[in-house]
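User: Please fill in residues for this 178-position structure.
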């Protein structure tokens, strides 16, 4: 099972992925931070804002590689869940947020279905920026709506997690594995 944990910036995704990994689940980490670091090392202040097409291309290639790797893992453990910190669909959602279209990628999304998508809402109480997260909380709210739209539009099984403790969110995730 391919399971995506997604949501706007600083909504608790990585904390959940880390908690799942500590319980022995197979998890694939978010790759955008490494792409952001690459951008900083190559002279960009905000790589996504300054070169959204190039940034998104790197993410697309990385997330497709993750998807393919998870497919190979599934062959050896077909019932074992594989958790991904963000999915391929997130790229299209972020581009839509910028009012940029990529019809080829939008069309290709049907080749990358997920079994379940857990969507985390914006949560101001835990929201933080850092050296690789530049967005304001207002942006996190807007991105959340684009994420919900793309996963719903592509007929993914979307379950919204409440603003709650990591343990309570984990309980919901584990109860919804089928």
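Assistant: Residues filled in for all 178 positions:
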């Amino acid at each position: 099972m391919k399971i995506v944990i997604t949501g706007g910036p600083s909504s608790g995704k990585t904390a959940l992925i880390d908690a799942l990994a500590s319980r022995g689940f197979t998890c694939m980490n978010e790759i955008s931070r490494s792409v952001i670091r690459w951008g900083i090392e190559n002279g960009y202040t905000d790589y996504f804002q300054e070169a959204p097409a190039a940034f998104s291309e790197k993410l697309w290639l990385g997330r497709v590689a993750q998807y393919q790797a998870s497919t190979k893992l599934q062959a050896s453990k077909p019932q074992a869940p594989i958790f991904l910190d963000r999915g391929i669909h997130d790229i299209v959602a972020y581009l839509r947020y910028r009012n940029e279209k990529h019809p080829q990628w939008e069309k290709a999304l049907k080749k990358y279905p997920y079994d379940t998508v857990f969507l985390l809402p914006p949560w101001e109480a835990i929201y933080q920026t850092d050296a690789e997260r530049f967005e304001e909380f207002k942006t996190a709210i807007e991105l959340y709506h684009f994420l919900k739209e793309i996963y719903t539009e592509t007929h993914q099984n979307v379950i919204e997690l409440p603003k709650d403790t990591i343990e309570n969110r984990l309980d919901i995730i584990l109860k919804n594995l089928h």
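For context: The beta strands are 2-7, 26-28, 82-85, 116-120, 158-160.
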